[in-house]
Amino acid sequence: MKLKTTLIPFLLLGFSSLIKAQESKNEQNALNYIKEHSKEFNLIQDHSLKLRFVRNGLAGETLRFQHTINNVPVYNSEIVVNFNKKNEVAFTSTSYKNNISTVSTIPSITVENAIDLADSKLNYQGVVTFQESKLYIVDFQNTTKLVYRVVTSAEDLAGSWEVLVDANTSEILSVKDIAIYCGAECSEGHNHLNQNTPFVKSNKKFAKTESNTALAYEPGSAMVFLSDPLSSAQATYGDTGFTDGNGQGDTDTAQLNAQRVSVVLPQIENTGGTYKLKSPYVEIKNIENPNKGLFTQATTNFDFTRNADGFEAANVFYHTDNSLRYINETLGVNCVQNVNGSHAGVLWYDPSGLNGADNSYYSNGALVFGEGCVDDGEDGDVIWHELGHGLHDWLTGGSLSQVNGLSEGSGDYWAQSHSRALNQWPSSAPQYHWMFSWDGHNVCWGGRTTNYGATYPGGLVGQIHTDGQIWATVNMKIWDIIGREKTDRAFLEGLALTNSSTNQQNAAIAVRQAAINMNYSCADIKVMTDKYTAAGYILPAIPLTINCPGDQTAIADGAGNYSLPDFSSLANAINGNCDAVVTQSPAIGSVVGVGDHTITMFANGSVSCNFTLTVEQNLSAEDFSTTVVSLYPNPTNGLLTIKGQFDNLEKYTIHNLLGQSVQNGIITGNETSINVSDLSNGVYFIEIGNSSKTYKFIKE
Question: What does the pLDDT read at residue 394?
């Protein structure tokens, strides 16, 4: 695979990229819906909405409409509309700000002026690794203002710094670190600006541009912790050999090094025999100090002991790359870095940043890990947690919410979902629920948990990391019942329906709706409803729905007739109590002939869906091996059943749209189920025996 990328920082002048052209066949339908519900959305009559972001996912298509005045965006103000697979509006969310006044959108200063003012205030000297400036309308202290929002990262600035500059008066309205940090010990960000050395503009430098040469990838390997050394050893911090080094740095011990595991790195960059921790998903960078290098080498084996800085580099690379492959290739959820155009599609990470502080953060499509006490890059929970912020950001196109600590709880859930799947602790152990088992719960800091006792909203204390534990805890309770992959898919697709002001309760509604859109069983939906309700969230009643299977194929008898079976087990009726009665028309036992027939499935006789049954001509006995009675469910996300008349064991081969063979096996009877969960989402064709006839199915 080949890829081109660049190291140049993303310097945006103006705001054109924020509301770049997006297209959707549902755009007008969504606008019509918003117009019909304008009073509910509290729309301002002379303001506009512009489609800025479209996401097609397993839960349908989601459109984000930016609130604008004269084409200038109102910061963090949008309406989100989700269409399910039936092209019906299934869910909406809004952060629309109806307290914004109509103001002039013509700035009195240039974007370059705004950047100069921000640079002077931040007073940094190091290489700039990220800088953007966009024109916005904001509500600043209950007054509507036109501002430049300048965001800067530099090697000698710990964090990601936002400066709001009044676009008319040149006044600096606010300066703050907007990075999203891992631990409560530094949860509100850093406030360490360079106040001693005067800023010298002529010294301003940007990260060098990488030449756009073709990049080749090869498999590699690394030694890593899964997910941390205490969990894999079922040890306690302070046991012999299981400490960070008592202030002496990352001291090697036999016990810690013994917990390293050799893993495969599916793709690492090879440029002329020099290997780098870079894949189509993830790339190592020096984003801020200390600069310890990129650990390039002449071998594919990134095998380091714990005391080497390269160990954290390889450990972070493996965990982030592994997580993104799991999301995109196993779960089939479309989610890659999309908020920073300089490296769109690729997550940047720095395994040693924050000037050595004991924390880590996500911002602007990048992860930075500190080294205080236990190096954060050594703990899988820290890595997956921080990546969780990135997932939240990308799924929403930059509309991540920290209301009620939603993104903190989401990061904790994502980390715990991974570490619990490793089955390292028994459910009876306190560590079964711990977050940051190596980095926290020790002398470094207290860590967090996913069996937090508080409920929503009475248990909120107004601290995002503490409150986020409510959200992480309830999702892990769902995880324990319906399993990792189902919960992860619903969680991710649900986050994609939220906005920058979504609280935990509305996020719960969104996750459940995503599961409904994806045709989860009524039993799974009820588990979500029960657990979310027990946690204190108020969820709306579920309207009665029914989802049909995909189109089916059957074979007529010798007289050209086919007696309809009971299709109720292939339909999925969903209501609050999971007690809907499913019937069909034509009725069970009705006889139909060769051709296409519409089958209608009813739930409680009131709501319905349709699918097409194709009855094919009966073939002679010698042709039975080429005939499949039916494939179901179709589409499928796991098991595909092949039902037909087979006298002998038959081979099957599955081809993708390129004609490549992707799976094969043996049909062992007249009704055989095969596992296609490892296939990527898409359209496939299955060939039975030596027949030239193929049958189409969809993996989703």
Answer: 98
